[in-house]
Design goal:
Length: about 260
């Protein structure tokens, strides 16, 4: 599903979703936010789609909500807190962010929604809406402390300062830094690699990691065991047999 503001491209198991409002640094007006939610839901429902790449057009990732629309009297709906919001809860499949330029205000929330964040030297994160009195309603106040820790999250939330690519890597906000202008290509390459792994174990491990935040350690480990059962029954023995025959030795995988 594509609109002029949200472009969706599929290549085999990889779906690339591009926020396409470069004239506004890919800020999301309400139409684009609903379009992003529709694109994410369509990806999740497509059995052929295994991993998504989320990026922005024209050298920016996402500058948050469209303040011109908001300033004109149109209220925006909460991207994380509303039932039809694009960032309500993690999808059942991995999403990789390819970030160049600004990922600020609500755009930071879009980046945090993703499992992996790949950046180049132009990437910049920040709660820039702090100066305009626009609160976070995109999951940032919940997801940012879980990723970078409470202290660093408070520094970003209270000051609204910019965090560049290198600092983002240092504090764990960004996952990988690649050559300038290559974030989408590198993210799609990584997505294709992830899509090639046995899916049940990969999905259950990912789900366990997300669900662990809501449980104490003993309950989280119990849930990990529960989630692992299907993969143990369906994938583990065949995978171990492939390894025993020599596949994957020394970190090498068949293409």
């Amino acid at each position: 599903m594509s609109t002029s503001k949200i472009v969706v491209e599929a290549q085999g198991p990889v779906t690339t979703i591009t926020i396409n409002r470069p004239q506004a640094k890919n800020a999301l007006d309400n139409e684009a936010a609903h379009g992003l939610a529709d694109a994410l839901r369509a990806f999740e429902a497509d059995p052929q789609a295994k991993v998504a790449v989320l990026t922005g057009a024209g050298g920016a990732f996402c500058a948050g909500a469209d303040l011109k629309e908001l300033g004109g009297g149109t209220d925006y709906f909460p991207w994380a807190g509303s039932a039809d919001g694009p960032l309500r809860a993690p999808l059942a499949k991995p999403v990789i962010a390819a970030i160049e330029g600004h990922a600020c205000a609500g755009g930071l929330g879009v980046a945090l929604f993703c499992d992996i964040r790949i950046v180049d030297e132009t990437a910049s994160f920040g709660v820039f809406s702090r100066r305009w009195g626009v609160p976070m309603s995109d999951g940032t106040t919940v997801r940012l402390p879980r990723i970078v820790g409470q202290g660093r999250a408070m520094d970003m939330l209270l000051t609204g300062r910019a965090v560049g690519a290198d600092e983002a890597i240092t504090i764990g906000l960004a996952t990988r830094k690649v050559a300038r202008g290559t974030t989408r290509a590198e993210a799609e390459k990584l997505a294709l690699q992830i899509a090639g792994f046995p899916p049940i174990a990969m999905t259950s491990d990912r789900q366990s990691a997300y669900e662990s935040f809501d449980r104490d350690e003993a309950a989280a480990i119990q849930r990990e065991m529960e989630l692992s059962l299907e993969a143990r029954r369906q994938e583990s023995q065949s995978g171990a047999a492939r390894f025993a025959k020599g596949e994957g030795r020394h970190g090498q995988f068949k293409k």
